[in-house]
Amino acid sequence: MFNELKEIICAYVDINPEEITEDSRFIEDLGFTSYDFMSMVGELEDKYDIEVVEREVIQVKTVGDAVNYIQSLQE
Amino acid sequence: MKTRKGNKVYPLTNAQKLHFYCLKYCPKKQVLNIGASLTIQVDLDRELLKQSIEEAIARCESMRLRFAQDKEGNTWQYVVKQDDSVIEHFDFTGWKMEDAKQKMEEWTQTPFARFDSPMHHIVMIKLPDGFQGIYIAVDHMTMDAQSLIMFYRDVIELYCQKLYPDEVSYPKDMASYLKQLQKDLAYEDNSSTCQKDRAFFQKLISSSEPIFADIYGPDKLNAERIAKNNPALRAATNTSDNVDANISTFHLETEPSERLHTFCQNQQVSMVCLLLMGLRTYLQKENNLDDISVTTTIARRATLTEKRCGGSRIHCFPFRTIVAKEDSFIEGIYKIRDMQNQYFRHANFSPSEYYAYRKQCYHLEDGQTYEPLSLTYQPLSMRYDGPGLDKLEGIKYRTSRYSNGVAAHTLYLTVSENPTDNGMDFCFEYQTGVVTPEKLRDIYYYLCRILFHGIEDCSRSVGEIIDWV
Is the ipTM of this complex over 0.90? Predict the structure, then answer.
């Protein structure tokens, strides 16, 4: 899933996939705006057939957080 | 209609329909015109600049967008392969600056021919003070502020590459407007995502009725209650037959602007959340109401393709928050942020459908609304340090907007970053028959007092801030 997420991230910000780590922060490191992030969340909801909770998703700060959160919703 | 002049035609998108309906019902047909200039304090090579503009148009499908009407009166869009518009030059040397501004306003106030005709007007200009650059007028159904800025940037990059071909690489391609258009139309064709977005907004709209809170206080709503003999009325008519409009801009200097940005960074909230909090607190003060609605715009440019595809992608939605006077400034901002995040997830939904559903839900008459004004935050600046621009380092930039003389709604506030000094511009576009310049000064004054008192200590309550200002 981490690799899939990297590919999705690269559709939003101009970055080499190799530069993305699990510790990469969406806003501070990858340059996402809040709209970019929520738009990507919408795409992830469709792709993984999940539904996020607003107050939970705003706690997602890093790529690793995102992977863990998606996986927790899938279980 | 399947093709027009050999080009495949497509329906209008939800974003374009917003403007289309505005145009349809507005008596003055230049209402969708956007006029802006970018000039710099340097002698430009006019021939190279002309080539750069022509090349930028060739690279930008939405600058080659045309509209067509079929026999049933439906409007369609198509992209021509070649744009043959003549790029003129106008030298304002010897003119007064205010006369040059008035001339560019006249250009902005000239309606475009709607069908099978270019939807832009570009002029290379030299201003009386020697600044040189480009004036552009576009139709809002083809471009919005972000795509216009990206177009200006493309022209700059192409110009620098032509000027310094051995040092500056050719700029990246723009993304295809038509490919993005097809994606948008697929969503709008009642996709499962569209259905989810519809369900979200219908639930939100029907949860409870908002209330109109005017910039001038409760008088307008009270007058409507008397006129309709309905003391429980919550919506008011906020349109005017007189659509004449003007623009007033207030500039916030570098240092205070930086304080706003630093606050947003430290609190991890967006600038638009902070601005919304300031604006809604002002309306709360004027109306003594915790329940405040304003219209917000969402640029809808998240992916790299969306950022570079041109076109007009803005969606506007009513944005309602209830913030009690006992809540702290930062709690109010968090309420806004949480609501905004929800809007972002469902932002592709049709604004026209939103308004139609709300009208039906609350039996509104034509012209009745709950929102006294609209707020847009434009973070993208025409100034940036892209390829080749180090050659222009230190050069003074100037950007200007020109009024098209018409506004379909009472008041729009656009807050943008000013490239000249990294300050911020608060640009009010207003119907002159309804709003006065004095009121705008009032709004700007109190907005700033609220914002700076709030960010100074964001644990202060909203009530405390209202009493202090």
Answer: yes
